[in-house]
Amino acid sequence: MSSENSITFVKNLAAQPANTPAAAGLLKILVASQATGTTVQMAEAEKTVPKSKQPYWVLVDGGNTKLYDANAVVRYLFKVGTLPLGERLDIEQLLEWEEKTLSALSTDANLDLVLAAANSRVSQLSTSASVGAADAVILGTAYYALSNAKDAAIAKYGRLFQWFERQLASSAANSVLPAYKENVVRVLVREEPTIDNRKVRADIEFSFDPKETVLPKEGAQNVLITSALPYVNNVPHLGNIIGSTLSADAFARYSRVRGRNTLYICGTDEYGTTTETKALEEGISCQELCDKYSALHQQVYEWFGLSFNHFGRTSTAKQTEIVQATFEKCHANGFVSEAELTQLFCETCSRFLADRFVEGTCPSCGYDDARGDQCDKCGKLLNANELIEPRCKLDGNRPVLRDSRHLFLDLDLLQPRCEEFVKKSYEAGQWSSNGLTITKNWLREGLRPRCITRDLKWGVPVPLRGFEDKVFYVWFDACIGYPSITANYTSEWERWWKNPDNVKLYQFMGKDNVPFHTVVFPSTQLASAEPWTMLHHISTCEYLNYETGKFSKSRGVGVFGNNAQDTGVPADVWRYFLLANRPEKSDTIFTWADFVSRNNNELLNNVGNLCNRVVKFLDKNTNYAGIVPAADAALIAPGADTTDRRLIDDVNVLLAEYVQNMDAVHIKAGLRSAMEISARGNLYLQDSRLDNTLFSESRAQCDTVIAVATNLIYLLSALLHPFMPATSASIARQLNAPERLLTETFELELQPGHVIGKPEYLFMSIDEKKAEEWRAKYGGKQEASSDKDKKDKKDKKKSMAQKKAGNQDQQQPAN
User: Which residues cross the membrane (predicted)?
Assistant: First the structure.
């Protein structure tokens, strides 16, 4: 049977109507019955049957055994328990995989995942035409997925088709089709949870569509968020991610879930010496390097669930247009001057050396591997000619001093206006303390004219006669990348960036980027005399270090974005750990033991336990059958001296703390408040003694506990959305409720009669032994210890750089 015929055959069966999980269970049972020659009878579920086992129950062998679960029936019919141990374990392994993977994923949203998973495992199934226990079980679930999938999606899974055709050709499968069609209607007696049987407050629903263009609204809270534009010279590591993009994402998600009109903009910073240096190392053009690393960054951020409205780049025509226009206004207003600058010139390379092409000893702290623009050890900003014993990064030779004419932004003339801006901004925006301290130190030392041009080829060209051979310094044009990326998102970008009275700008970054965002960029905006939207709040991070020292891609030290994905630990767990350890006031250290411990003790035992206990009780208890009961009004009334009212009052106190922390961009404290609310919910279940005994002792009390606890985890889904969006979505899905806005008080938004969905596990335990395994894998390579090894390594690097330098001079910017 061809693939096209298979698709038609599947679609014809699907029209019977069989494309539901319940029908898939029926097909499993009927095929197993026919294959084993055992009589089964099926009927509608009794009222006492647990909801999760509905809509049918099965009498096996003429009524001697009563079973409810399809896989249990298959196990019984094939007498799996009597098989030799090895054979039984093989079958049980496949059945367990089907239950935890295929069946767990079997929703319309996950059909492609089900097909892909089944396709990868069919080689382990029987190759004969006979139908075994594992074949029968997987046949039902695979059929459900195939009958619902689109033809284009089905065509990708050839191995699954071949196996599926072989099973359908067997006598067991073919002979049950009439009974399948005859009985399918009887097993579909229970309506699955839908929007129609939801009972949720109408104005609580929240949604975010990144395809929708967001523009400021009159009378609304318009929030503009940026995170520092990452350089395209490497894969971001955990410190990069928490330092800017993830922190900004948490606040953007919080802002949206509070109902605020929010735009989150980011992109790759692609011009400047850093790009030229990395392109030389890799032997490719600057454009090729930018294309490569921009794609890698986007892949990492997509996996981490970062909710950019737009993620762009700075090597665009819009960047050139806006940077040049801004410069021309600054120049026309008298804030740009010209001066001779003594620079280092490499006679071997025949070129002026930009800052990043020079290395040497820091004049401030004596560090012998300082860069020409900044010392990584003490953090002092430098000019390349200030270095002691400078050397050319390309060939290691000592450069000479020569004069070159450059343009300067006159920050000294702008200092009074900049100081006025800083005072007004930090008082209104509650800047982070390290951002304010760094800015005040710059202003206290006194601003000086800052060179804004460089002798490079890769960058925005300077639109001024006599400077055609120069480009703008990356820290003049990088911050203008925020407006230019927005301009590539919408032609109405000025409604965001030239709207100071109606937009609040929040910016996130590591502490090393602070002065460029609080002094240089604001001074540029002031010098242009345009009505720019200026910084309202700056949120800065200290450094996140790896347990053995600094992150180093070259030495294999630390966890980079792609490594996090490779561990198999879900992105939400990574997000939680990084945000809970956000280095807001001092450096923090990533350790594997702490990572595993926080997953197991905080996520699994706190949040996971609360949600799973409540949803499972409501779903499996036959007295509720997944329907939210009404709370006793007297037990939850204001002022009532009850466990339930104390829970509500305590949650409202913690909720106020959460909102206060998040509004002030104290992200770590906000997450801590959310976790305290979850812990308070667990204590409530413990104090209330939630179990089946509670129902028999006091129906009113049990109803109230269930109603309050179910609504508490619904509130928790909104509280956790900024930090763990997939977890938040899972909670909403289990409650059969829309993802919700965050209100400032705890109320019962899920109303009596609301039908919940199916339980899911939010988190899985991580074996503590994994910490040692990951530590060994990401602990770094052994560095060469002898002087000869170091010299050989340096000479090889120098030789490669010299060979590549000749081609680099031919590179031109693609503007």
Answer: none
C-alpha pair distances (Å), 751 with each of 199, 631, 742, 747: 5, 9, 17, 10
Ranges of CATH 2.170.220.10 domains, the chain: 336-407
User: Which range is most confident: 308-317, 387-396, 469-478, 696-705?
Assistant: 308-317
Query: Does position 805 have pLDDT exceeding 50, yes or no?
Result: no
Task: Report the CATH number of the 3-187 domain.
Answer: 1.20.1050
Sign of CA dihedral 171, 172, 175, 181: negative
* Sequence ranges of the chain with CATH classification 1.20.1050: 3-187
Q: In the predicted model, what is the mean pLDDT of residues 615-625? A: 85
The whole-model pTM stands at 0.73
Q: How far apart are CA 284 and CA 807, in angstroms?
A: 9
Find out if CATH 1.10.730.10 is the number for domain 572-734.
yes
Q: Which CATH class for the 336-407 domain? A: mainly beta
Per-residue model confidence (pLDDT) at position 698: 86
- 489 versus 4: the higher-pLDDT residue is 489
Alpha helices, H only, 15-170: 21-36, 70-77, 85-97, 104-105, 111-121, 133-148, 151-154, 158-169
Tell the CATH superfamily of the 222-323+468-541 domain: HUPs (3.40.50.620)
Looking at 169-173, 343-347, 502-506, which range is the least confident one? 169-173
Residues of the chain with CATH 3.40.50.620: 222-323+468-541
